[in-house]
Specification:
The chain is of the alpha+beta class and 201 residues long. Helices cover 42% and strands 13% of the residues.
């Protein structure tokens, strides 16, 4: 497949790229930050095979058919959908996107403390109590779950090991803490924030 370049597309491809994705923080092995002839061909193939497919289906085609990394495929899936959703008319083709910048799309990870809570199992002295008419009736009540568990004293609790704690993330409190932390960055120096962020590559 041959792609004919307009003068504007040719100039965009020739333009020196001194700042890649996120000011040079992100670079990929197989793709740059512009739409190249290879990416035009990829987008056109996806458009013919699967233009109305789900995100996951498009992602699989790009990753498997073109032997790209998962991160590269995610970025191209995002940009494919973005170009299609913003095309000016139905006659527009991906050939016209040649030389246009690609938008970075990937996983960001912000280092913070995640609040958790957990339940721990253990034992404490107590009794099972129920009203009954005989010892046998009392046994039946306990077997049927009709007795009440009563703690004699909480002072002799014997917890099981911490390895048995069922930890869970406290999402509500976690998001509250994040809002407080991020307020400092919104009006402050972004360098401190950037230093606490990892980008998944």
């Amino acid at each position: 497949m041959k792609i004919k370049l307009t003068e504007g597309q040719y100039n965009r491809l020739l333009k020196e790229n001194d700042k890649d994705f996120l000011d040079g923080m992100v670079n990929f092995k197989h793709i740059g930050n512009k739409v190249t002839p290879f990416i035009v061909k990829l987008f056109n193939i996806v458009d013919r095979k699967c233009k109305d497919c789900s995100w996951d289906s498009i992602l699989r085609i790009i990753q498997n058919d073109f032997s790209l990394s998962k991160e590269e495929s995610i970025l191209l899936t995002y940009n494919y959908n973005n170009f299609r959703s913003h095309r000016p008319n139905d006659e527009w083709t991906f050939d016209e996107a040649l030389g246009d910048p690609l938008i970075y799309y990937g996983k960001f990870s912000y280092k913070t403390e995640v609040p958790v809570y957990g339940n721990i199992d253990g034992y404490v002295s107590g009794s099972a109590e129920a009203y009954a008419t005989s010892y046998e009736d009392f046994i039946d009540k306990m077997n049927d779950g009709e007795s009440e568990m009563v703690v004699t004293s909480w002072s002799d609790v014997e917890p099981m090991s911490l390895s048995s704690v069922g930890w869970e993330i406290d999402h509500d409190y976690g998001y509250q803490r994040l809002e407080t932390e991020l307020d400092d960055y919104i009006t402050g120096d972004m360098d401190d924030f950037i230093n606490k962020v990892d980008i998944g590559l």
